[in-house]
Every structure is written in C-alpha cells, then in structure tokens.
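Data availability excerpt. The first of two example chains:
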Amino acid sequence: MFNKVILMGRLTADPELRQTQSGVSTCQFTVAVDRGYTGQNGERQSDFINIVAWRQTAEFVCRYFGKGRLILIEGELRTRTYDDKRHPDVKHYVTEVYADKVNFTGEKKSDSTSGSQTAQNGSYSPSNTQGSITAPAVSNGLIGADLSDFEEVASDSDLPF
C-alpha cells in the first residue's frame, strides 16, 4: 500500500501551537492550494486542505510560518468520522493530511511595513542586506544544531562539482 501527499500552498491563517494532555505539541492549519487550471472567467480556483502536524514538525510550523506564507508539505492522507453531539443520527467525515515533513519553498517574503518581523513569521528581517529568510539550523531533523564547521561559499564557481 502507498499513501503519500505532496502539497505546496499558502497558509490561510497563523498556525497555533497546542499541547495534548500528555504534553505532545500539535497544530492544525489550512493550506490554500491553487488548481492547475483556470475557470471560464479566468480566475484560478483553490482547494483548502486541512493539515495536522505533531511534535517537532508542529513546533517548526508555528515558529517559522504565518498567514499567507508559502509552504511545502509531505505527508499522508487520513480520514476519520465522528458523531454530531447535537444530532445523534448525523455522522461527520473529515479528511486531513498528516504532515511528515514541512519545508520552506525558497520564497522571499515581502514586507510592506518597516522594521523586522519575528521568527514566528519566518525570521525575515528587511534590514538584512540580502533580504533573505533565515531558516533554522537543522541537522538530522534537529533544530538548533551547531553549524560552525561550515563556511559560506561566495559563488558557484568555487564548488568542485
């Protein structure tokens, strides 16, 4: 069996980090994903897909992504049902993507306000001379790894491949 979903879209709202009773981090958010075609009136249509993230993935999303931010998600499709408390004979069906991996897309976030934004909105700082997004240090899936052994390569011509 195979269940793999890959999506790229924009967050419809700021994700909110929550904790289960046992202290496990989780967040739910919705991503607007454009369809591959335009309608008769020339407008693009979008699907709004519910995403669920757990543990470090949830913390990463809540720290570095905000409303309108482009995000790449790898995960699996899951469905569940629940009975309506008000109407016992009504059953609700829910389809969600459980995120396994979440990535930046390389998009440089534009900012119309002065000053810098917080890390919660992608660590973007207009005062940064290159105007780039500062990603967290990630090594083997661990945020905050020591990267002092690496050096910045000034141009591609210095690369041996």
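And the second chain:
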Amino acid sequence: MADANIFLVGLMGAGKTTVGRALARERGLAFFDSDHEIVARCGVSIPTIFEIEGEAGFRRRESCIIDELTQRCGIVLATGGGAVLDADNRARLKSRGTVVYLHAQPQELWLRTRHDRNRPLLQTADPLRKLEELYAVRHPLYLETAHIVLETGRQSVMSLVAKLQRLLDERAAAAHKSA
C-alpha cells in the first residue's frame, strides 16, 4: 500500500509544502510537513533547534519524524530539504511511498527564499552560493531517491498539482499493468 503515500523532496523553496498541501487536498489525503511536525513537537523554531543542538541534532529529530510519518498510509509528506542526506531516510522514503522530486535551479530558489529568515542554512553572506553548494550535494541524492522528477519553474501551484496528478496516475497505471 506504499503507493498510497506521496513524499515530496527537493531543496528549500522548491514548493514542497505548498504543492503538497494542494495535492493532498485534491487527492483526499492527509498532509504532513516534517519541519512543521518537528517545530510542533519541540515547541521552538527550526533556527532555535539549530542554535541549541546544531544541524546534527536537528537531523536526528528529522529522521525520527520521517520514520514515524512514512509508516502511515494515505499521506502526502513534504520533507525538509536535507532529509535525503541520511541514507536511512532515503531508503524509507523510496520503499514506503512514491517520491516526487520538485526540481528547481538554485537561482530560482534564491528568488523564492531570499526574504525568508526561517531558513538557518541561508543565514550567510552569500545565500545564492550556499544554495548552489547545497544543490551540488543534494541533487544527485534527490534523483537517486525519486520515482518522479517534476520541474517546478514558474508554473502556478495548481498547474504543478495537475501535472503531478497525471504523472502519479500514469505511474500507478504502469505498476498495475506489470503486476
């Protein structure tokens, strides 16, 4: 029943939460955002977690949340941008649902995130360069994990969701044929 779950991966600013929420609404599924779950359970912001526990502490919390949420059925999960750094997370995501990589170039992501102060990794003198560095490391991991790659570009959320619905339905039909 893993196909009942849809997991969104991609860099910060790719639209995982926005697209995920809309996709869940369209498909009648429950929506979760791993970052929001961490904040709700800790009672503090992600920048505060980074400040107190460092990135390693945050990643441990993230892995626990992903393990827990991916065991549910009938959900859309927006993961944090760095979730794919952990091999166990990649394996859980890939085996417990359909993984969709929302792909965008660093320049586009920078335009979307440049005013957001809630992204600790971008609190640097050159956030675009940081996004390029993150992209270089994470892009191959997103590709390795994803069943579907969706180019986000400058499309509206609803056109992205419609395109994603078609891709998910095509994948399900192909899987049904081969079964």
